[in-house]
DNA sequence: CTGTATCCATATCGATACTG
DNA sequence: CAGTATCGATATGGATACAG
């Protein structure tokens, strides 16, 4: 994410574009709902309603909003079964699976350092 | 982050507490500013003003807010040099460094899949 | 069931002013 | 220089209603 000084040179234009896109992706994807959705989809394909149950506390709106965003970036694939009632399934794509690996890392980190963190928090709050 | 059904049994109380703390940490830390700050501090210790320059686009307020949060969880250490003008340095702790590894992973992921993502986004927007 | 749109309360954020 | 406090503008998110 090194986003520092550019010269005015024309060949920097591409770098600047790539950087700004990278930053946009980073800003959109680095939020808790997206992460929790990716984590849930890591196990298996899920329907909309299943996701609502799996991702504890997510609202209808946040779920659709984040699913659209993830779909837009090609991180999840949306498959509509034209039945009635409709059935829509969400699956992680390969880039999505790759991202999931890093989210998994963060989940592991959270549990590994839970003790440290809880202690630090108590110390700080005192 | 598996946060599913609990029985009413008393021994589940600890699990529930741990889970809710883990979720709180996750919710607080999984935001772009925290990530970008951690990323910047990964290289070396930085002062407040240096961080403002390194973390492009962060406001005074967001920077202090996130630094406090990271300090509270024991992810960064704040060292005040009682000089005048004051000099405050921020350093990643060991848990912070560990988290940085996963954030690095996400940065790497972003750049690796930039092409895929940009293509997907264009397809979606059309 | 899935998805969009709307309303409305609250949270977020940037700008600014001010203190040690 | 570092940090807090305040104030508006804006975004976020939940609840609800409705459509395919």
TrEMBL record, chains A, B:
HTH hxlR-type domain segment(s): 18-118
Pfam entry (one): HxlR
Any one GO molecular function term: DNA binding
InterPro entries membership: HTH_HxlR, WH-like_DNA-bd_sf, WH_DNA-bd_sf
Keywords, ordered alphabetically: DNA-binding, Transcription, Transcription regulation
Superkingdom of origin organism: Bacteria
Protein name (record): Transcriptional regulator
Organism encoding this protein: Streptomyces sviceus (strain ATCC 29083 / DSM 924 / JCM 4929 / NBRC 13980 / NCIMB 11184 / NRRL 5439 / UC 5370)
